Amino acid sequence: MSIDTQTVDQVAHLARLEFDEASKPRIINDMNRMLSFVEQLNQLDTSNVEPLIYMSDETNVLRKDEAKAGLPLADVLKNAPKKDSDYFKVPKVVEKK
C-alpha cells in the first residue's frame, strides 16, 4: 500500500487537520515510512506468541460497595461558596432556546 495526496486529504479530513500543499510531500513520506515499518512487523513469525490482553499481571483490588452514613448537611454545605438552605448554588449552564 502506498500513500498518495488523496489519502492524506482523507486522513486529514477525518482527523480534522489542515495541511498546506507544501507540507503534503513530507507527510506522504512520513506515512509511507510508517506503513513500511508495519510491513516489517507483518513478516515476523508470531505463531507461538499468545495474544496480549493485559499489559501486566496486576489486578485491581476493589473494596466492597457498602452503604455508609453520609455527612451531616451542615458539614457538607459549610465550605460551599454559595448555598441555599439545603442546596449548592451554581451558575446556570443550560439556557432555554
Entry keywords:
97 residues; 4% strand; single chain; 35% helix; 3 helices
Model description:
By secondary structure, the chain is mainly α. It has a domain at 5-42. The protein has 3 helices and 2 strands; from the N terminus they run αααββ. A two-stranded antiparallel ribbon has the order 1-2. Strand 1 and strand 2 (87-88) form a beta hairpin. The longest helix is centred in the middle third of the chain and has 19 residues, at 24-42. The radius of gyration is 28 Å and the shape is flat. The chain starts with a helix and ends in a 9-residue tail after the last strand.
What is this entry, summarized?
The protein has 97 residues and is mainly alpha-helical. The chain contains 3 helices and 2 strands.
How is this fold's topology laid out?
Layout: H1 5-14, H2 24-42, H3 73-77, E1 83-84, E2 87-88
Antiparallel strand pairs: 1-2
- Write down the overall geometry: flat
Amino-to-carboxy terminus distance: 50 Å
Query: What's the total count of β strands?
Result: 2
What order do the strands of the largest sheet run in, or round the barrel if closed?
A: 1-2
Please work out how many helical segments DSSP would assign: 3
What's the average pLDDT?
Answer: 89
What Rg do the Cα atoms give? 28 Å
**What proportion strand?**
under 5%
Q: From the helix content, strand content and strand pairing, which structural class follows? A: mainly alpha
User: Biggest β-sheet: count, sense, barrel?
Assistant: 2 strands, antiparallel
The low-confidence parts are none
The helix/strand order is HHHEE
- The amount of helix comes to 25-40%
